[in-house]
Specification:
Number of strands: 7
Distance between the termini: 42 Å
Number of helices: 8
Bound molecules: D-galactaro-1,5-lactone
Strand order of the largest sheet: 3-2-1-4-5-6-7
Largest sheet: 7 strands, parallel
Structural class: alpha/beta
Order of helices and strands: EHEEHEHEHEHHEHH
Length: 273
């Protein structure tokens, strides 16, 4: 059987780097696209390194050729000016989806973010957690771009029958420690992230889905039912780091909303983490 070729955009970013090592497996080639320099292939690592921008239709057409699946992580991962956000995140995703469609890629996984619903209140969650398909309540231009990415995914599914899974990622870092107390709620461990992407790659005919990307954290306020319906099983829990996080949970808007510090970050200005 021919190798499965998975194109990952934004592969030099934080999530891309964490997934590069975890999504490798026999019979799979990872085609890694980024504008930033990428580490050379390790011995035995089956990767194709591509330098290119998600906003460049020719580069994306070449990158999509022969790929079986696409994981689109590329773009700004926090707040930027409206012009940049529009170009890189929204226009870039349309370019990527169009190239994927033209190349016949039928399985697309889009990285959305909790910031698409950042202005939802934590106390909306209820017993089962905030549903994965809660309507958009973005907290930043970045959050607006993630809501637009979700809508583009829906459009390409409805028009062209592509299987598109949107993951509203919480906080995918090696540990939740840099995030403070909010990380105990939002953390997606890298290993769970890989389990989630594997479920998204392999579930038969998912159609269009929106799911949360978080670990089964004790303090989780996000529904995992939608991700579990695709076969995801979280094995990690941020609570093991709780004793190392001594800062108090923030009060005010940042403590009351899903988006945490993004809800008060100045619009259009790059923000930390
Ligand atoms: C995101 O969407 C960002 O890409 C990431 O850097 C974190 O800030 C994360 O959200 C979060 O909310 O913790």
């Amino acid at each position: 059987m021919a190798d499965q070729r998975v194109l990952i955009t934004g592969s030099a970013g934080i999530v891309g780097g964490l997934m590069r090592t975890r999504l490798r497996k026999p019979g799979r080639v990872l085609r890694l696209l980024d504008l930033a320099p990428q580490a050379a292939a390790e011995a035995g690592e089956d990767v194709e390194l591509v330098t290119g921008s998600v906003t460049d239709p020719a580069a994306m057409a070449a990158a999509c050729a022969g790929a079986d699946a696409l994981i689109h992580l590329g773009g700004h991962s926090r707040e930027h000016t409206w012009a940049d956000t529009l170009d890189v995140n929204i226009n870039g995703t349309q370019v990527v989806l169009e190239a994927a469609r033209a190349a016949g890629i039928s399985r697309v996984i889009l990285a959305s973010s909790n910031h698409a619903v950042g202005f939802r209140r934590n106390d909306e969650a209820g017993d089962t957690g905030l549903p994965a398909d809660s309507t958009a309540r973005p907290d930043t231009f970045y959050g607006v771009s993630k809501a637009a990415i979700e809508a583009l995914g829906s459009l390409y599914h409805s028009r062209f029958g592509m299987d598109v899974i949107v993951i509203r990622i919480g906080s995918c870092f090696e540990t939740p420690l840099p995030l403070g107390p909010r990380g105990l709620t939002t953390w997606l461990s890298p290993d769970d992230g890989a389990r989630l992407f594997e479920a998204c790659l392999s579930f038969p005919s998912p159609g269009y889905r929106v799911i949360w990307g978080v670990s089964d954290n004790t303090r989780r306020i996000y529904s995992l039912a939608e991700a579990e319906a695709l076969g995801y099983k979280s094995l990690d829990n941020a609570e093991i780091f709780a004793a190392q996080i001594t800062a108090p949970y923030p009060t005010g808007p940042a403590g009351e909303h899903v988006g945490g510090p993004f809800v008060t970050a100045p619009l259009g200005e790059p923000n930390p983490l």
